[in-house]
Design a protein that fits this description.
By secondary structure, the chain is an alpha+beta fold. It has 3 domains: about 160 residues, no CATH class; about 160 residues, Glutaredoxin (3-Layer(aba) Sandwich), CATH 3.40.30; about 150 residues, Sandwich (Jelly Rolls), CATH 2.60.120.260. Helices cover about 40% and strands about 20% of the residues. The chain contains 13 helices and 18 strands. Strands 8, 9, 10, 11, 12, 13, 14, 15, 16, 17 and 18 form an 11-stranded antiparallel sheet that branches. Strands 1-7-6-3-4-5-2 form a 7-stranded mixed sheet. A hairpin with a 4-residue loop joins strand 11 and strand 12. Helix 2 runs antiparallel to helix 7 and helix 3 packs antiparallel against helix 4. The chain is globular, with a radius of gyration of 28 Å. About 30% of the residues are buried.
Length: about 525
C-alpha cells in the first residue's frame, strides 16, 4: 500500500502541476472546496455524510477481497484500506500532497512521500499486530482531538470568509510586505532551510568551502563564448551570476558585475552570467540575445531556459552570486543586491590565492543611473506585485462579465499597495493581456521608482501608452521610458521604468492607459 501510494502520488505530482496555476474559476472552486473541508472538520456528522459513499465503496471492495485470492485480493484490500482510512488521514495528506505539487516531481518530493507512506503504514501495522490494547490507548485522546479538529475547522471557515471579502489583501496592503533577500536568507539559515552545504575552513583563510561548482551542461545556448565546464575553468577564479533580464534587482547589480569583469578579467577572473528566466518570454533565445546586446554584456552568458543550472546550484534568488576558487570550490555566495564591497573583497582574496599579487585592493565605483540606480530603501514601502492570476495579490477590481476575456471596472477606492484593471482584459497565469483599447492599470504605491514588466503580444505591434500620477502628467517625476507628459511606447518585452519621484516621496495613485490593444503586463517592481 505504501509503495503504491508513493508511485501514484509522484505521477499525480508530475502531471497535476497545472492545478497550481488555474485561472479565476479555479480560485472560486478552491474556496468552495476549502469551505467544504472546514465544515467537515467542524461538524463530525457532516463529515460522516460526505465520506459515507467513499467508506461504503471501501467496504464493498473489502468484501470482494475476502472472496478473491492472489494479487487481485491484495490489490482490492489495499484500495479498500485507502478508502476507509482517507477520511481520517485527509488533513495531513492534503498538506503533504500540496507541498509535493508545489515542488514538483523531484527527489526531495519522493523522499517526503516515502516518509509519509512509511509512517502511515507503520501505524496501521502497529494496530494490526498489537490490536485492541493499542486502539484502546488511542481512544483516550479522541476527545481532545475532536476539539482541536473543531477549532481548525472554525479557523478554515474564517479564512474562507476573509478571502471572499478581500480582507486578506487589505491586511497585506497595510503591512507593506517588502521582500528582502537578506531577511529571507537570515531566517532560512536559522531554521536550517538554506542551501544544503557543509562548509569547512581553509587553513589561513576566512572563506570556507561550501562545495564543488556544479555542472553547466544544462544551458540551451551560450552567448559571447563557447560552452564552458568546471574542468575548463580550473585555475581561474569564477563568479557565477544568476540573473534574468526583466528583474530590477538584477539590473541594479549589473553595473558592479560589469565593473568587476573589466577590472579583474586580465588577472584571472571569469564572470559567467547564468540567465535563468522568471517569465515565459524570458525563455526565448532571441529575447535574451537582444537583452544581452542592449545591456552591453560582454562576458559569457549561459542561457538556462530550463532552469537546469539553477537547480544544480540549488539556487533560490535573483540575483545570486557564487564565488568559486581556482580548484573549482564554491567559497562564498551572496543573494540579492548590496554588500558589493564585501563581494569584491572576496574576489581579491581568491585571486590572491591563485597567485596574483598586483591586484588593486580598492573597490569599484560604477555610479549607476537610470534603471540601474540603487533603490531608495528609506521610502520603499511597496512590494513586487504580479499581475497574472498565479501569484496575484492586493487586486481589487470587480468584473462586469464572467468570461475568459473580462471587463473590469475602476475600483471605487484604493488603499496603499492595492491595484486594479480597467477595461477588457484576458488574465493568464503570468500576465494580463489587453483585448480591447483603451485599457488601464491603476496602482496606489509608495516608492521613489515604479517599474512595469510588459511588452506587445508575441508578433504584435508596438503599443502606445500614457501615465498619470494622482491624475496629472508626471512632469519631472517621469521615468526613463516616459516623457514629462507621461507618453511612451511598449516596443519589446522587458522592464520599463515609468516613474522616478523627486522628494518628497509620498503615497501616489499611478495610472497607465494603453491606447492600443495587444499589450501584456506581467509585474510591478519598485525602487
Amino acid at each position: 500500500m505504501a509503495l503504491t501510494f508513493v508511485a501514484v502520488a509522484t505521477l499525480a505530482t508530475a502531471g497535476g502541476s497545472w492545478a497550481l496555476h488555474v485561472n479565476e474559476y479555479g480560485r472560486f472552486a478552491a474556496i468552495l472546496l476549502l469551505a467544504l473541508f472546514g465544515f467537515t472538520l467542524l461538524f463530525g456528522s457532516f463529515a460522516d455524510r460526505v465520506m459515507r459513499p467513499v467508506v461504503a465503496l471501501g467496504n464493498r471492495l473489502s468484501g470482494l477481497a475476502g472472496t478473491s485470492t492472489g494479487i487481485g485480493a491484495a490489490l482490492l484490500l489495499g484500495c479498500a484500506t485507502g478508502l476507509l482510512w482517507a477520511p481520517c488521514a485527509g488533513p495531513i495528506l492534503g498538506l503533504i500532497l500540496t507541498g509535493a505539487a508545489i515542488k514538483g516531481a523531484t527527489t526531495s518530493t519522493t523522499v517526503l512521500l516515502v516518509a509519509y507512506a512509511g509512517g502511515a503504514a507503520t501505524s496501521l501495522a502497529a494496530v494490526l499486530l498489537i490490536g485492541g490494547r493499542l486502539f484502546a490507548a488511542m481512544k483516550k485522546s479522541l476527545g481532545v482531538g475532536e476539539w482541536v479538529r473543531r477549532g481548525l475547522g472554525l479557523a478554515v471557515l474564517l479564512g474562507v470568509v476573509a478571502i471572499l471579502f478581500g480582507l486578506d489583501t487589505g491586511v497585506l496592503a497595510r503591512l507593506s510586505p517588502i521582500p528582502t533577500a537578506s531577511v529571507e536568507q537570515f531566517f532560512m539559515e536559522k531554521t536550517g532551510l538554506s542551501r544544503a552545504t557543509k562548509p569547512y575552513q581553509v587553513a589561513g583563510n576566512d572563506l570556507p568551502v561550501e562545495g564543488l561548482m556544479p555542472s553547466l551542461r544544462g544551458a540551451v545556448a551560450w552567448l559571447n563564448s563557447p560552452p564552458l565546464s568546471p574542468q575548463q575553468l580550473r585555475g581561474k577564479v569564477v563568479l557565477v551570476d544568476f540573473w534574468t533580464y526583466s528583474c530590477i534587482n538584477c539590473l541594479r547589480s549589473r553595473p558592479y558585475i560589469h565593473a568587476w569583469n573589466q577590472k579583474y578579467k586580465d588577472h584571472g577572473l571569469v564572470v559567467i552570467g547564468v540567465h535563468s528566466p522568471e517569465f515565459a518570454f524570458e525563455k526565448e533565445l532571441s529575447n535574451v540575445q537582444r537583452a544581452v546586446h542592449d545591456l552591453g554584456v560582454t562576458y559569457p552568458v549561459a542561457v538556462d531556459s530550463n532552469l537546469e543550472i539553477w537547480r544544480a546550484f540549488n539556487n533560490e534568488y535573483w540575483p545570486a552570486h557564487y564565488f568559486i576558487d581556482k580548484q573549482g570550490r564554491i567559497r562564498y555566495h551572496h543573494f540579492g543586491e548590496g554588500e558589493y564591497d564585501k563581494s569584491e573583497h572576496v574576489i581579491q582574496t581568491l585571486l590572491g590565492e591563485t597567485g596574483y599579487r598586483d591586484v588593486s585592493a580598492s573597490s569599484v565605483n560604477p555610479r549607476p543611473s537610470g534603471l540601474q540606480a540603487a533603490p531608495d530603501l528609506a521610502d520603499l514601502q511597496s512590494p513586487e506585485t504580479y499581475i497574472g492570476s498565479a501569484q496575484r495579490e492586493n487586486f481589487v477590481s470587480k468584473t462586469l462579465a464572467n468570461k475568459d476575456s473580462q471587463v473590469y471596472e475602476k475600483p471605487a477606492n484604493l488603499e496603499r499597495n492595492q491595484w486594479g484593471l480597467i477595461g477588457k482584459w484576458a488574465v493568464g497565469d503570468e500576465q494580463a493581456t489587453l483585448e480591447q483599447a483603451p485599457g488601464k492599470i491603476i496602482f496606489h504605491f509608495h516608492a521613489r521608482d515604479l517599474n512595469l514588466v510588459m511588452g506587445p503580444v508575441p508578433g504584435g505591434k508596438p503599443v502606445r501608452f500614457r501615465i498619470t500620477i494622482d491624475g496629472m502628467p508626471p512632469e519631472n517625476a517621469h521615468g526613463v521610458d516616459t516623457n514629462a507628459q507621461g507618453a511612451g511606447v511598449v516596443s519589446v518585452q522587458r522592464l520599463y521604468q515609468l516613474v522616478r519621484q523627486t522628494d518628497p516621496v509620498l503615497d501616489r495613485t499611478f495610472q497607465i492607459e494603453f491606447l492600443d490593444s495587444g499589450v501584456q503586463a506581467f509585474s510591478f517592481t519598485f525602487g
